[in-house]
Input
Amino acid sequence: MGINFNKMDLDTVVIFGAGSFLAKKIIKRINFKKAICFSKTLNKSFSKSKKILFFKSYLDNQEKINKLLNKKKITVIFFNNTTFDNLILNKNHLEISKEISENIINTFNNAREISKVLVKNNFGRLIFINSTRALKGDVGTSGYSISKHGILGMMKSFSKELSRFNVTSNCLSLGFFESPLFKKISKKTRDNLLSKCDNKSVGDIGSLVNAIKFISNSNYVTGSTVFVDGGYQ
Output
């Protein structure tokens, strides 16, 4: 008998980069007992649910948040998508530094600190949202591709060091979703990209939510990349 992930509630979900398009969709679709969202743009106006708490920064509120996370079964999701669209020969130091800082260094710092709570609780799920561009790259997105490839190494390292504490670490490699960023691309380019997907379509939020629930409820899945990309890889 298969597992119906749609009927499963997660205990406590922590979302970094909760203001991104896909993160906001997930917050509305996934079932949880408590969610802690980190975003510089989201606040209570996004959702008045008492199950959702909003903070601008984890490191600035660490003591308070750690008390909320004590003895909880926590799934942590990292959305870090800073990018500057620019060709390599035109790319400047500020752009690449910002992409590396936001997508890798800040992610590492948050993951390292919250992992101390997961280890203490003897349970945790780290899910790093990655992209098809981590492995394939694309014209004009070198910094984004570089930083997303770095996330793969980060995920593997956390898995190697923390699995003995019942803390798993995985990546979700996403393809193309009907996001504002994707809509900015010309129709010709969008059609060309989707033609390279096996199912020739954009992704659906339900598949992404199911992938998150699968990882959260799987003890033996760690150090892995789960592709939610319609067969683009």
Summary: Residues 66 and 117 are 7 Å apart (CA to CA). Helices lie at 21-29, 62-69, 93-121, 133-136, 142-162, 180-184, 187-195, 205-216. The chain has one domain: 5-228. The chain has eight helices and seven strands.
